[in-house]
Design a protein that fits this description.
Radius of gyration: 22 Å
Structural class: mainly alpha
Shape: globular
Helix content: over 70%
Number of helices: 8
Number of strands: 0
Strand content: under 5%
Largest sheet: none
Order of helices and strands: HHHHHHHH
Length: about 200
């Protein structure tokens, strides 16, 4: 307990120190292009700008995906009569900004399902199965239809490329790969267009 608290305190102090040093040297850091060799400076700047635009489009698309997921979950839970179903659905939808983070909300969601069933004097098993069905259908729609189309359209990647990139980077780097799948694919896509297709 004491060691854990000490570790958290040290991490917080280090974070604050890093922020202070970054703020002190912000002007120098913002001129990072001055440190690049002149021979490659223009290409690197164009590459970073392309990548930055791709990431902005990705996050905008991801916000739309999260909104759609939140709407589906909140509607489904509310129709089932789950206690705090609207808030639960909106929270789980917001958690989809980080891929698959919403899965961590399943246990508390099932607890709310049990409480709702007890209050309604209904079958607990039926409530649990209904909630799992809502979450499963929403997950399938999100991963198979909504995300590939919206994120693909926002980033310029085809839906099949979005699906494949999540699978590929997830297999390669595990959970971290899932988080970085689309940004890494955008990076490779930008590199291909900037340095290979248009030499």
């Amino acid at each position: 307990g004491a060691l854990f608290s000490l570790g958290l305190l040290l991490q917080a102090l280090l974070t604050v120190l890093y922020l202070i040093f970054i703020l002190i040297d912000y002007e120098a850091l913002s001129r990072w292009t001055d440190y690049l060799p002149v021979r490659i400076r223009a290409e690197v700047i164009l590459f970073v700008e392309d990548f930055s635009v791709a990431l902005k489009r990705y996050f905008r698309g991801q916000i739309v995906v999260s909104s759609c997921t939140a709407t589906l979950l909140a509607t489904g839970f509310s129709l089932l009569g789950i206690k705090l179903g609207l808030i639960l659905g909106l929270c789980m939808g917001a958690m989809t900004l980080v891929p698959y983070l919403q899965l961590s909300a399943i246990p508390p969601a099932l607890v709310l399902g049990v409480l709702s069933a007890v209050e309604a004097h209904a079958s607990i098993g039926r409530y649990m199965l209904s909630m799992l069905l809502v979450m499963a259908v929403t997950q399938v729609l999100q991963d198979g239809v909504i995300a590939p189309r919206i994120v693909g359209k926002a980033t310029g990647l085809r839906p099949i490329v979005v699906l494949f990139s999540v699978f590929f980077w997830g297999k390669l780097f595990g959970f971290v790969g899932l988080l970085l799948a689309i940004p890494l694919t955008c990076l490779l896509h930008t590199y291909w267009r900037r340095l290979v297709v248009r030499p």
